[in-house]
């Protein structure tokens, strides 16, 4: 169970502690933040409400610990990451239990997230050794007008303190996707977990603690965003911010100053279906892409743009599959579980009611109980409906019928988002042309949008983000290039004549 066994020390009565300077601590504020179970709508956990002064202390220790960590050999950094990954996977059950109770993720998917996270950490350790173990050697005479009098040596060095802010929907996986690259690159790491998902993150951080990382190198500070959010993101000790979430990231990016940013801020991922598409394949991917984890994924299919000539057939196939989706508690591994909060459910309902008022066709009856919304396919959606453009982050999927491929591309590109998209066709030439035309960070051909495998580049255009994720890209973003130039008194060429005469 969560908070028991090896995790006993992270809990103080009913309130989980925060992690600072290698110890689990209670906040001097004497206050806590409640975490509400989305399914029961009752308080499930409580975490510390940390203060700005505690943030200052964490940052001070992170700066100090980073200096020593940067001198730690790469193989040793990798060794500790592998150890943390093994501990995490060995303790997947209590961490998965936390995910079930604080974000209503189905039990089997919760276990998968923890195991995937362990694999990501290990992969990152190996990739980091390869990337950071290599430098570059340049010779001056490769540029016009220069003799070979300069040898340029370049290497990658850490940035300093990395602030990681993961979202509620993948709190463990998207936390380690920031933590592991930061650590292997020689940075220290301050984690601000989401409120929903904080307890899962605290359990995960304890696995790093048990692995034996130096004190102060990793910190996990919990609290209300209204009290410590801006204070964290604008803190002068922070040298890089990696954030995954909503439009809060836009505000962060405007305030952060001259530091590297890695931002993934959501999407309105379009699924363009051509007349020659395998409609059974499309329907299966719409279900997987649009309704897994109740649609609460940045890479979920958010709008279907289907050619009019095949729309009726596709809608019927999707309707038949929607009817088979199970709805209920996450503990029972239901396909559709409660969305994360009442405010989220209310927002989704607002999009549905707008579509209803404007004449969308409801393929199922709209049904809601508390935070639990039954899966809903909306046909004949028009561009004047909010659901055509806004990200529901729930189990509601709009279908727009299009008369040409150009119409579908134009709708996709008119969005302020540009995370991912997908196209279904048997013509690979058309698929490539459409992919080039879509203004998104990634286009999937004949498959639903997805983040992963975790070593693949993952990035968004426009309001969907800044920078690129994926193991290699994250390591590179969390480092900077250091150059050393050796200046020779006279030109020197390998195997050249006249060596003795120049001495």
From TrEMBL:
Annotated Aldehyde dehydrogenase domain residues: 24-483
Taxonomic superkingdom: Eukaryota
Record-linked InterPro entries: Ald_DH/histidinol_DH, Ald_DH_C, Ald_DH_CS_CYS, Ald_DH_CS_GLU, Ald_DH_N, Aldehyde_DH_dom, ALDH-related_metabolic_enz
Keyword Protease assigned: no
SUPFAM superfamilies: ALDH-like
Keyword annotations of the record: Oxidoreductase
Magnesium keyword on record: no
Catalysed reactions, semicolon-separated: D-glyceraldehyde 3-phosphate + NADP(+) + H2O = (2R)-3-phosphoglycerate + NADPH + 2 H(+)
EC number(s) given by UniProt: 1.2.1.9
Entry annotation: catalytic residues: 264
Primary enzyme class: oxidoreductase
PANTHER family: ALDEHYDE DEHYDROGENASE
Similarity comment: family membership: Belongs to the aldehyde dehydrogenase family.
The protein's name in its UniProt record: NADP-dependent glyceraldehyde-3-phosphate dehydrogenase
Source organism of this protein record: Brassica napus
């Amino acid at each position: 169970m969560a908070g028991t066994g090896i995790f006993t020390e992270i809990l103080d009565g009913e309130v989980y502690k925060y992690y600072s300077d290698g110890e689990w601590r209670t906040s001097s504020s004497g206050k806590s933040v409640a975490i509400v179970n989305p399914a029961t709508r009752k308080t499930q956990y409580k975490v510390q409400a940390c203060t700005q002064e505690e943030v200052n202390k964490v940052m001070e220790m992170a700066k100090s610990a980073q200096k020593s960590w940067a001198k730690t050999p790469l193989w040793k950094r990798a060794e500790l990451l592998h150890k943390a990954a093994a501990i995490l996977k060995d303790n997947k059950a209590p961490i998965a239990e936390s995910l079930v109770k604080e974000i209503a993720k189905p039990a089997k998917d919760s276990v998968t997230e923890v195991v995937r996270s362990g694999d990501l950490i290990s992969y990152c350790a190996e990739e980091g050794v390869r990337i950071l173990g290599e430098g570059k050697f340049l010779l001056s005479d490769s540029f016009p007008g220069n003799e070979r009098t300069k040898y340029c040596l370049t290497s990658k060095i850490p940035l300093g303190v990395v602030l990681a802010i993961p979202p509620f929907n993948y709190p463990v996986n998207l936390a380690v996707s920031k933590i592991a690259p930061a650590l292997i690159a020689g940075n220290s790491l301050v984690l601000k977990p989401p409120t929903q998902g904080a307890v899962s993150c605290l359990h995960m951080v304890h696995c790093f603690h048990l692995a034996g990382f130096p004190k102060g190198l990793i910190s996990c500070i919990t609290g209300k965003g209204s009290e410590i959010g801006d204070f964290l993101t604008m803190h002068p000790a922070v040298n890089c911010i990696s954030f995954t979430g909503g439009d809060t990231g836009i505000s962060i990016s405007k305030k952060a100053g001259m530091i590297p940013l890695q931002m993934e801020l959501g999407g309105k991922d379009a699924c363009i279906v051509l007349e020659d598409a395998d409609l059974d394949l499309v329907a299966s991917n719409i279900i997987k892409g649009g309704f897994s984890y109740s649609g609460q994924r940045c890479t979920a299919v958010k709008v279907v743009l289907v050619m009019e000539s095949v729309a009726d057939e596709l809608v019927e196939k999707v309707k038949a599959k929607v009817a088979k989706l199970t709805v209920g508690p996450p503990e029972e591994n239901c396909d559709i579980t409660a969305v994360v909060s009442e405010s989220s459910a209310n927002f989704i309902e607002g999009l549905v009611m707008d579509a209803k008022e404007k004449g969308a066709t409801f393929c199922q009856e709209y049904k809601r109980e508390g935070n639990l919304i039954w899966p809903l396919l909306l046909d004949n959606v028009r561009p004047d409906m909010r659901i055509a453009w806004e990200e529901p982050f729930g189990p509601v999927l709009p279908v727009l019928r299009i008369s040409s491929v150009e119409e579908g591309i134009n709708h996709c590109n008119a969005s302020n988002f540009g995370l991912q998209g997908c196209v279904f066709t048997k013509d690979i030439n058309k698929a490539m042309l459409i992919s080039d035309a879509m203004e998104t960070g990634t286009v999937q051909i004949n498959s639903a949008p997805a983040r992963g495998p975790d070593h693949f580049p993952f990035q968004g255009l426009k309001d969907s983000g800044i920078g690129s994720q994926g193991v290699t890209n994250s390591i590179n973003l969390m480092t900077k290039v250091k150059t050393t130039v050796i200046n020779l008194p006279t030109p020197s060429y390998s195997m050249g004549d006249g060596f003795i005469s120049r001495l």
